Amino acid sequence: MDPATAARRRPRWVRPAVALLLAATAALYLIDVAISGWGNSFYAMAVQAGTESWKAWFFGSLDPGNIVTVDKPPFSLWVMGLSGRIFGFDSWSMLVPDALAGVASVGLLYLAVRRLSGPGAGLLAGAALALTPVAALMFRFNNPDAFLVLLMVAGAYFLVRALEKAGTGWLLLAGVAIGFGFLDKMLQAFLVLPAFVLAYLVAAPTSLGRRIWQLFAAAGAVLVSAGWWVAAVAAWPASDRPYISGSTDNSVLQLAFGYNGLGRIFGQGHGGGGPRGGARPELPAGLDFPAGRGGGFGGFGGQTGLTRLFTQQFGGEASWLLPAALIGLVAGLWFTRRAPRTDRTRAALLLWGGWTVVTVVVLSYMSGIIHPYYTVALVPGIAATVGVTVRELWRGRAQLVPRVVLALMLAASVVWGFILLGRAPDWQPWLRYTALALGALGVAVLLFGLERLRRIAPAVGALGLVAALLGTATSTIATAATAHTGGQPSSSPSNGRGMRGFGGATQSNVEIDRLLQATENKWAAAQTGAMQSAGLALGSGKPVMAIGGFSGSDPAPTLKQFQQYVGAGEVHYFVAGGRGFGGSRGTSGQITTWVERNFPSATVGGMTVYDLTKGK
């Protein structure tokens, strides 16, 4: 049945149900979206710079003077920066685009799943995505992950459209979406490509030769859509653009395949001018590596292995429906093993199940920097796999085996949710027992009573969904109602604020803010590392130079460059006490030493401030 015919035959309840799903998602993500303030102040600082300088906007610079970039490509900053230019820069204008990306992701996931598996599967997939805690976390936050998910889901939607009639144009659009995903978070966007290639190579309704050349053409689309900005940065004279933070040679490609690529997978250092090759960096006061975790600035994610995504750190983020998805995927592939090559259900399983499996393996075995919120990229795969398999198994519920698999999926979801809720025993303890009781009833009816109770089969299905989704839904609502700040936010109800001091702006210092607001220089102040200088820039509304970029270890500016800026009267103050992983070593240490020796200091708001317009 072609999509147009299917649309005409679609039940009347579908459109109202979709409208309700999108409206509820919008309410969940948009209501009180500014509760987190600047969220990750590191990215907020760059968004602020982009609203003041188009050059900073294009490169993703940390300040409008374009000294150094953030350590990611700028796609998400482009969107948030444009919003800030249109509506004025504040927390609301910065975070609303991320929330809207979440609503769009849910809508696109519904459309993609529906085209291969029907509206019921699409609605369940969309709801599962919306009601996963890490999704509510990232779609109400200013990290790049919100737009990464949107672009990957868009790529999957275009791929599904290509699968229908082997459409080259749709396949090229899928490549463009993933290419722009690279411009959002580099190689993480490519995690879905194995599933895309497998699904199309197996199921597209055309000859093998045509499938192969179409995939090569799509690879070209990925390269062009990702490479144009990389080429523009490479062609731009290095002396006239910011330093590419996190790279060792001021190169986007080195950043992509080093710090943000192989370094993430194999734990090869933390990029920039600081320690690499597994060396243990110097952390700011108040931070330390948790015991038993690796060096190389990795280790935030605990030990590697297939159990990582179920640990205390990761489990509550995205794994609520992961056991059910894996059970359903195995069963679905077994049931469709003899289906025709172009079978739509198997194509859907290859696409969404492949997305899930590849992402699970990579996240489980990454030995470099990994944060629990990275699992948001896994959620669409889990949600769609659950939607597709539940729908197909429910259609075959008259037979015993599909009912048994459904019961296993429900039991796995409820038991795992019970365990996850038990990790925060003081938070709404009644929920876990309610979900367990409802789940036990649903499993019992599926196994022993469904044939006798056929008239209430819809009610049984609804009961199972409530039991399976109760834990993740309530945790998601709690996440949305909690303020999150810093570089490692968590969606757990018991730990909503993230790691202290890591990427979160310090509390506003009124005296420092007033001092900087009175300046007219190109840079009101300079400070080592963006972790604290972001607070100065956001609090005062004035340009602040983050010496050494995020970690303070990038060689930008050099001592000679900084001396030239000071000699030209372009930097008014140097604020001591900046946080960085470079410590007293490298360029930032040289600049600090030079300032301390040559300029008078004063205490302002409890901080030591050097006036760079006056010599000793």
Explain this structure.
- The chain crosses the membrane at residues 92-113, 120-139, 145-160, 167-183, 189-208, 215-236, 318-335, 347-367, 373-393, 405-424, 430-450, 462-483.
- Its main location: membrane.
- Pfam families: PMT_2, YkcB_C.
- The chain has 24 helices and 5 strands.
- It folds into 2 domains: 8-37 and 71-232 and 305-476, no CATH class; 510-611.
- The protein has helices at 3-8, 14-30, 41-52, 54-59, 75-87, 91-117, 119-130, 133-138, 145-165, 168-185, 193-203, 208-235, 252-266, 315-318, 322-335, 344-365, 379-395, 400-422, 430-449, 457-480, 510-517, 530-540, 559-567, 586-598; strands at 523-528, 544-547, 571-575, 601-604, 607-611.
- It is globular, with a radius of gyration of 26 Å.
- Helix 3 packs across helix 5, helix 6 (91-117) runs parallel beside helix 9 and helix 9 packs parallel to helix 11 (193-203).
- Residues 270-299 and 494-501 have low confidence and may be disordered.
- It has a 5-stranded mixed beta sheet with strand order 2-1-3-5-4, sandwiched between helices.
- The protein is mostly helical and 616 residues long.
Helix-strand layout with pairing:
Layout: H1 3-8, H2 14-30, H3 41-52, H4 54-59, H5 75-87, H6 91-117, H7 119-130, H8 133-138, H9 145-165, H10 168-185, H11 193-203, H12 208-235, H13 252-266, H14 315-318, H15 322-335, H16 344-365, H17 379-395, H18 400-422, H19 430-449, H20 457-480, H21 510-517, E1 523-528, H22 530-540, E2 544-547, H23 559-567, E3 571-575, H24 586-598, E4 601-604, E5 607-611
Parallel strand pairs: 1-2, 1-3
Antiparallel strand pairs: 3-5, 4-5
